[in-house]
Amino acid sequence: MTMPDLNLLVTMNALLSEGSVAGAARKLRLSPSAMSRALARLRYETGDPLLVRAGRGLVPTPRALELRDQVRRVVHEAQAVLRPAFKLDLGTLTREFAIRSSEGFVETFGSAILARVAREAPGVGLRFLPKTDKDSTPLREGSIDLETGVTSKEMGPEIHVRGLFRDRFVGIVREQHPLTIGRLTAARYANAEHVLIARRGLEMAPVDEALGKLGLERRGKVTVGGFSPAIMMARESDLVATVPEKHTLGLCKGLRRLPLPMPVPPFMISLFWHPRLDADPAHRWLRSIIVDACRTDAA
Predict the structure, then answer these.
(1) Residues 6 or more apart from 283 whose CB is under 8 A from it?
(2) Is residue 230 pLDDT above 90, yes or no?
């Protein structure tokens, strides 16, 4: 059996990532003509055109879309195998990690994470980025190193997951709010004026589903785009904000937390990363710090 030319996988990865012969040639530092010849070989080996002309550009075929993530994963894993192993020296480690998370995570856990990183590896920097969706493309492409949140169908099947802590929704109100006086029922909760949170992923759906089963519906007074403005408005008014309890502890200081008066399933906040970084010593060290910080502060 003839051994296939495995270098073609690197070429295919560049072509399918860039979507153009010229872009792939620049990425691999080859001439456009050499890349065109490599594409011709790939078409012969796979029996598929892979990239076809559409106007002035190229678009991937269904077969190319099917292969794209698989080829990227194989190339990254091969690079990891050939990368020389090194002993982690935190004292001399110089690196920046990008972490994507929803509002409240940095305010609640960021200080503990940063303090330990600064103590153990002063040359390491952290860059916290806002999480606007559940797309795992940034993890696959390497623009972020870690992500926190709730697992979803949009998460790629290859992404590694580690549970951080279980959370639940609670009502957030100011001190002396009318709902803090007397017995809180589902009807009283629903009939109060609420600040609603419109976020991609429908984080509030379980709360509304639980009320719907009782024939109730929240009275939305205003809608905002995140936890921070919702909590701020609850702080300055009689509005009720419904947010994840442990995840937003850092944002809710000085406010009253009300257990919801109807059954709403709890959920798991998890840590996500791409498998190409699973064995990286520095990455493993940072993951352990985040896990420890969440275990301590969420207890």
Answers:
(1) 97, 145, 146, 273, 277
(2) yes
DSSP string, 77-109: HHHHHHSPP----TTT--EEEEEEE-TTHIIII
Q: What residue type is assigned to position 77 of the chain?
A: E
pLDDT in tens, 52-75: 988 888 888 999 888 888 888 888
256-259 and 169-173 strand pairing: antiparallel
> Quick check: 189 and 179 in contact, CB under 8 A?
yes
If asked whether residues 173 and 261 sit together in one domain, one would say yes
Pair of tokens at residue 298: 């969420």
Measure the CA–CA gap between 104 and 254, rounded to whole angstroms: 15
- Among residues 82, 104, 129, which one ends one of the domains? 82
- Dump pLDDT digits (tens) for 260-298: 999 999 999 999 999 989 989 999 999 999 999 998 765
Strand 219-224: give its sheet, edge to edge: 219-224, 193-197, 240-244, 169-173, 256-259
The better pLDDT of the pair 2, 128 is held by 128
Closest CA to 240 of 197, 276, 198: 197
Residue 174 structural domain: 169-265
CA distance 116 to 105: 16
Separation of first and last alpha carbons in the chain: 58
CA atoms of 71 and 219, how far apart (whole Å): 50
Residues 6+ apart with CB under 8 A from 285: 88, 90, 120, 121
